[in-house]
Amino acid sequence: MPTPPARAAETTSPTPFPPARLVPLSGNGAEDVVIDAEGRVLCGVEDGRILRLDVDRRLEETIADTGGRPLGLEVLPDGRIVVCDAHRGLLRLDPATGAVETLVDMVDDVPLRFCSNATAAADGTIWFTESSSRYDFEHYLGALLEHRPSGRLLRRDPDGRVEVVLDALHFANGVALTSDGSALLFAETNGPRLSRLDLGTGAVTVIADNLPGYPDNISRGADGRFWVAFPTSRNPGLEKLATSPAWVRKLLWSLPDALLPDGPSTTWLMAFDEQGRLEADLQDDRADFHTATGAAEHDGRLHVASPQHRALLVLDLGDVAAGPRRTPAGSTP
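The structure corresponding to this sequence follows.
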């Protein structure tokens, strides 16, 4: 992997972190967050429940239970919700009844191993990622240590047909359609980079390379910008281990999880435009919330999820402006 840019060593952003408050959850481990048509916040927690919240009134309700481990979410045009469940595959939830149906759990007669994030077109086409075809969600660090590109981008057509669009991705993660639906942005956590897939030609272009942190989920925000959550900044030690001899990595993999390397705690969100130019950089070293993995913008606020907490973090974006567009230090547009 390339040497991390200088920005990776910083613990706070050049732009002051906005005012923020915690919104408690009844469960731990919200990995992604989305907003429904009525402005309510949706997230899934580690016990399998899908929660719906009115963050201003501090009201929460459980609308369904997947029976697995929900990760990425996407609200469909008809109000139903796509759920990427790490254990059960790609699901669809009817929030009115709580009914959960399986859309995809096998691809080419092989079970989905690690369904991660999804986005949907107006016609019902669903694009989704599988972070690794070799490691389960609970053992994600194995994929990072092995550094073998086993992630995939897949498409489910309205008629139910599923196609592998791209494979050999380095931990495929967040995915989002551009505003006109002509292209798709996707993140490779172990890239670490953002790429753009032209849906007309099939061409893939890396639009932000050698990022200072490991990108997770992507969501489309206001004014055409895309929010990317970074659970942690780059870890040079982990990256060196990923290119060490196989026996070293196997030895590390035999150690208890608590002894495996991890990145520094941080709360970090970046916004990019459709071409990968940086529009906002918000990072804080707060002690009460870290490891952001998903964010959703609505009505001037950014709702942030983390699998490490029983809460969401709500940022008041206020006057956070795009400012002059620039490319992150060390990246290649």
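The helical segments are 140-146, 236-242, 246-253.
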